[in-house]
Amino acid sequence: MFRRNHTAVAGLLLLLLIMGATLLGPSLYPIDPFEMVWAPLSPPGEEGWVLGTDQLGRDILAGLIHGGKATLLVGVTAALISVFIGVTIGALAGYYGGWVDEVLMRITEFFQVLPALLLAMVLVMLFSPTLTTITIAIGVVSWTAEARLARAEFLRIRELDFVKAARTISSSDARIIWRVILPNASPPLIVYAALITGVAILFEAGLSFLGLGDPNVMSWGLMIGSGRQYFLDAWWVVTFPGIAIFLTVLSISLIGDGLNDALNPKLRER
Amino acid sequence: MLQLVLKRVLNAVLLLATVLVLNFTLIHLAPGDPAEVIAGEMGGATEEILAAIRQQYGLDQPFHIQLGRYLGQVLQGDLGYSYYFNTSVIGLIGQRLPATLVLVITAALLSIVTGTLLGVVAARRPNGLLSHFTTIISLVGYSAPVFWTGLVLLILFASMLPWFPVSGMNDILLKNPSWWIQVWDVLHHLVLPAFTLAIIYIAQYSRLARASMLEVLGADYIRTAHAKGLSADRVVYKHGLRNAILPVITAAGLQFGNLFAGAVLVETVFNWPGLGSLAFDSILRRDYPTMLGILFFSAFMVTVANLLTDVAYGVADPRIRKR
Questions:
Q1: pLDDT given for residue A163 in this prediction
Q2: From CA A18, how far away is CA A216, in angstroms rounded?
Q3: Inter-chain contact B295–A114, Cβ cutoff 8 Å?
Q4: How far is B29 from chain A (nearest CA, A)?
Q5: A134 in helix, strand or coil?
Q6: DSSP B81
Q7: pTM
Q8: What is the ipTM of this complex?
Q9: What is the mean pLDDT of chain A?
Q10: Chain A partners of B148 at a C-beta cutoff of 8 Å?
C-alpha cells in the first residue's frame, strides 16, 4: 500500500535527498558556512556563489548544506523524546485508570495550557541554548497530544478479548502493556509521530530564528533569523533557508499521510 | 449542566494554581542569579549592591517564603514588578493585550471562515480546481515555518508590490487622524500578520471541515433532505454545514494557546506591539517577573478558552451534558 501511494513515495525520496545532501554535502562542498567568501549580500549567481551571500559575506549554499544537520538531528531526537514520554504516560494512564490516570492527566493538562513554543523558549533561555537543551526542551513541551491518543487507544484495547486472555495466563502488567496492547495501538501513534517530527523541526527553526538556538552551530532557522534585517534588500538571504525547512517538513508530512493511508485503511476513502 | 460547569471551573482554578507553583519553582531551579540580571540592567554591580538588590526584591528569603509571597500577590491581582521595563507586570500585559487580541481574533475568524468554506467546497467536488488549491494551501500551512511565511509575504506584498506596510501597527506619520482613518490604518497594518498567522489554521480547519463534511453528506438526514426536493445548495449549506462545523469550532477553541504561541513569532516578524513580542523581550532579558506573568496569563487565557469551548459544546450537543 505504501509503495502505491505516489505522494508518500515522493515525500520519502525528497527526505532521502535532503538527508543525503546533509550527510554527504559537507564533504562534497567543503566551504565553511561561517567564513566570509565574497562581498556581503551578493545576489545569487555572482562569481559562482550559486545562492548568493549573506550580510557577512558567507556562502548561503554552504549554510544550507551544513545547516541541515542541526535541524534534522534536533527535530528527530526531540520527536523521539516526545513520542517516548507521550506513549509512556498515555499507556500507563489508559491501562491502569483510577488515580494513576487522574494524576497523569493532570500533568498532561499542565503542559497543555501553557503554549508549547513559549514554554520551550523559557526552558531554553533558563538552561542556556545548546543542542542538548534545545532538543530536550522541544521534546518536553510537545508530547501531550500523543499521550492523549495513546491513552484513548489503551482504554479501548484493554477491554478486548485477547488482552483478557493474556491476563488469564497471568502475563505481567509490563508484558501486557508493551507486548500485547502497544503493538495493536501503534498505527495511529506512528502516524502522529510523523506529525510530531515535522512540528519539532518547525520548533527548532523557530527557536533558532528567535536567536534562542546554539549560536555556534549553523542552522536554517539561524540563517533566517540573522538575515532578517536585510530581507528587503536581499530576499535570497531568508528565502532559501526557509525553502529548505519547508521541503523537509513537507516531505515528512507527505510520508505521514502515506503511513496514515497504509495503516488506517478505514480512513482511506477520505 | 450547572454542576458540570462548576466542576470544570474548580478544576481550572486548581490547574492555574499548579501552573503558578510549578513555573515559579522552575525559574527558581534554573541556574543564574536574578539579582545579577537586575544589576545588569542598572549597569554593573559590586557584591554590596547585589546584596542590597536581593534584600530589596526579597531574593534573600528562603524559597517557600518567596513562593508564598508570590502566590499572595497573584491572588490580589498583582503579578509583580518588571526588572527590565520598571513597571508593574499587569500594567505591561494590559498595555500589550489589545494588539495581540486584535491579531489573534482576526486570525482565528479568518481561519475558521476560510478553512470551513474551502473544506466544504473540497468535499463537494473532490477533483475540482478549488479542491486542489485547498490541498496546496494545507500543505504550505502545515509545512512552512510561520515566521518565514511572514517574511516571504513581506517580500512579495510590502517590498516588490508595496501594498502593505512593513512593520508595526500604526503609521506614526499620521497627524491628528480622525478615528476612521486610525481604524483603517490599523486594518491596513493587520492584513499581512493576520493572514500569516491564519494560514496554519486554514490548513488544519479545511482538512477537518472536509473530513467532517464528507461524513455528514453521507448521513441519512441529508438523503432525506435531498428526497424532500430541497436544492443541492440548501442541503449542503443549511443542513450539512451546520453539523460539519462543530469539529472546527472545537478545534479552534482548543487551538487558542497555539495561536497565541504563533503570535510570538508573527509579532516578532512584523514588529507588532503585542504580548508575543513582550514575551520574547522578557525571555531574552531574563526578566523573570514578566516571564512568569505572561506564562500565567497565557495559561489563564487558554483555560478560559477551553472552558468556553466545553460549555458551548455542551449547549450545542445535548448528549455531552449527560457525561
A1: 78
A2: 22
A3: yes
A4: 9
A5: helix
A6: B
A7: 0.87
A8: 0.86
A9: 83
A10: 205, 224, 238, 241-242, 245-246
pLDDT-derived band at B319, boundaries 50, 70, 90: low
For the four alpha carbons of B143, B148, B150 and B154, in that order, the dihedral sign comes to: negative
Interface test with A, best of B143, B212, B288, B310 (most A CBs within 10 A): B143
End-to-end CA distance of chain B: 10
CB pair distance less than 8 Å for B147 and A224: yes
- % chain B with pLDDT above 70: 92
- Smallest Cβ distance to A117: which of B210, B264, B284? B264
Could you report the per-residue pLDDT of A195-239, keeping only the tens digit for each? 899 999 999 999 999 988 888 888 898 888 888 888 777 788 888
Using CB atoms, which residue from A113, A228, A241 is nearest to B19?
A: A113
Interface-testing mutation among B148, B281, B284, with chain A (most A C-beta atoms within 10 A):
B148
Task: Give start and end residues of each alpha helix (H) in chain B.
Answer: 2-29, 34-42, 47-56, 63-75, 89-124, 129-143, 146-154, 179-217, 220-227, 232-234, 241-244, 246-254, 256-270, 275-284, 288-316, 318-321
Residue B38 clears pLDDT 80, i.e. is over it? no
User: Quick check: B261 contacting A, CB < 8 Å?
Assistant: yes
β-pair partners for A36: A58
Closest chain A residue to B302, measured at CA: A113
| Burial zone of B56 (CB within 10 Å; 0-12 exposed, 13-18 middle, 19+ buried) | exposed
Displacement of CA B178 from its chain's centroid (Å): 30
- State residue B44's pLDDT score: 62
- All residues of chain B having their beta carbon less than 8 Å from the beta carbon of residue A114 are 19, 257, 295, 298-299, 302
> What are the tens digits of pLDDT across the range A254-263?
888 888 777 7
Q: pLDDT tens, B140-174? A: 888 899 899 999 998 888 877 878 777 777 776 66
Residue at grid coordinates 478545534: B251
Closest Cβ–Cβ partner in B148, B257, B268 for A113 = B257
3-class secondary-structure state, position A59:
strand
Nearest residue of B to residue A109, measured between CA atoms: B15
- pLDDT, residue A265, reads 60
Nearest CA in chain A to B270: A228
Closest CA to A121 of B5, B295, B2: B295
**Range with the poorest average pLDDT among A157-171, A190-204, B25-39:** B25-39
Look-up of cell digits 538531528: A73
Backbone angles phi and psi of B82, in degrees to 5: -70, 135
**CB contact (8 A) between residue A118 and residue B26:** no
Please tell me the predicted confidence (pLDDT) of residue A84: 94
Q: Which three cell numbers stand for residue B152?
A: 516571504
Mean pLDDT, residues A15-44: 77
Contact B145 A231 (CB under 8 A): no
